[in-house]
Design goal:
This protein is of the alpha/beta class. Helix content is about 60%, strand content about 10%. The N and C termini lie far apart (about 105 Å).
């Protein structure tokens, strides 16, 4: 008997085609999602799963472009660090500005701020273009960025950079969580006051006065001091509060250590504690007896607060007062907190 082969009917052909098309659509959607994931920080994860050995031109394109975007962000950070370092050297070693030169320095600071904002904006736009291209299934060519993807050395460096950033991110989350727990419930008589300005953290006119970072970021920045104070005086010895004239007077009246994380005020030698509306504080705003006899150390992060250092020392006696008669940088405050602040706390009675 001769075998016969039954052919699928037109209806069966349509069903098979529909299933295959659906399968291809789901596969293509997964590939596009993986392309988007590369730009959301998952490129190292895909590298660990062997993406570099896969013969998928689309995924290879977006994997390598995500590394290039991350590399651009590294260049931005490196350029910012170099600019700040040059500014620090210039402000501390090559120029000794007087009060009349504050306007010039503030103009230069704004110029650097706006230039940095523009560079970050270009990077953010490039990042968004790449994400949209991946989601739409396109392999967009971007000048300079696409050229970087052809250099294996830079791609390997960017991969290591991304891995280190991910590890540091996890560590910082743990530190911030622990610092927040230590400072969550201040006691009735804290020994350490950390006061931060309301607003003034983003150098853009529309956001300058409105944005204040969440308190957990303050706990992260000041973690060594928080941990040292808790170890030295016990739980509840640290309080983190928004800076105002009231909280500052309470701090110097009751605390042993006070850190004033603020910008410089409009008046040389003062500090600002709000920008909407503007509020400032000068040594003349303190009255005799406002500083408690137990006060030992007051750190002013404000730029140019050192122009009235003698007035601050007199108003806050017997405390040791740290000020800057120039532009002060966030980085140097960070290094002071993490390298010297612990010693100051441990040296107190």
């Amino acid at each position: 008997m001769e075998a016969t082969i039954s052919r699928p009917s037109p209806t069966q052909k349509y069903i098979l085609a529909t299933h295959y098309q659906a399968f291809c659509a789901r596969k293509w959607a997964r590939v596009r999602a993986l392309g988007v994931a590369c730009y959301l920080g998952f490129a190292p994860v895909l590298w660990m799963t062997g993406i570099e050995r896969r013969k998928d031109e689309f995924l290879q394109h977006h994997y390598r472009h995500s590394l290039a975007v991350s590399l651009l962000f590294f260049f931005i950070l490196a350029a910012t660090a170099i600019t700040d370092a040059l500014g620090y050297v210039y402000a501390t070693m090559l120029w000794n500005p007087g009060p009349d030169d504050l306007d010039v320095m503030q103009w230069l600071v704004r110029l650097f701020d706006y230039t940095g904002n523009f560079i970050v904006f270009v990077w953010a736009v490039t990042w968004m273009i790449c994400i949209i291209g991946a989601w739409r299934g396109r392999m967009t060519h971007i000048p300079i960025l696409s050229n970087l993807t052809q250099h294996k050395g830079w791609m390997d460096f960017s991969l290591v950079w991304m891995l280190l950033v991910r590890i540091a991110f996890v560590v910082l989350i743990l530190i911030a969580a622990h610092g927040s727990l230590l400072a969550a419930h201040p006691g009735p008589s804290p020994q350490v006051y950390i006061l931060y300005t309301t607003g003034g953290y983003i150098p853009t006119e529309q956001l300058w006065a409105s944005y204040t970072p969440p308190q957990w970021t303050i706990s992260l920045f000041f973690y060594p001091i928080i941990a040292a104070a808790t170890s030295h005086w016990g739980k509840g010895s640290v309080i983190i509060e928004p800076l105002s004239d009231i909280t500052f007077k309470q701090a110097v009246q009751n605390g042993h250590f006070v850190f004033v994380a603020s910008h410089g005020g409009m008046e040389a030698g003062s500090f600002s504690y709000a920008f909407n509306p503007y509020q400032g504080f000068a040594p003349s705003d303190l009255q005799p007896g406002d500083a408690g006899s137990q006060l030992r150390y007051v750190y002013f992060a404000a730029c140019f607060a050192g122009y009235r250092e003698s007035d601050w020392k007199q108003a806050l006696a017997p405390a040791n007062v740290q000020t800057y008669a120039r532009i002060s940088y966030v980085e140097e405050h960070f290094f002071w907190v993490w390298l010297k602040g612990v010693e100051v706390i441990r040296g107190m009675e």
